[in-house]
Design a protein that fits this description.
It is a single chain. With 56 residues, this protein is mostly beta strands. It has one helix at 43-48; strands at 15-23, 31-34, 39-42, 51-53. The protein binds zinc ion. Zinc ion (ZN) binds at residues 5, 7-8, 10, 41-42, 44-45.
Length: 56
Amino acid sequence: MERACENCGIPDVELLHVRRVYMDPDHPGEIAETEEDPELWCISCTTQYPHLAEEA
Ligand SMILES: [Zn+2]
């Protein structure tokens, strides 16, 4: 079964387990909220969106 990035939907062989985080607009560089459910992201998304690496 082909897997796809859960963020952008592009099929990719190299996907990483991450948890999406939301940055605090009032405090740059600080995390306001972290998603509880891990997602599979492609490398491209992990370079563009804030996230935490999830241990497999
Ligand atoms: Zn992606």
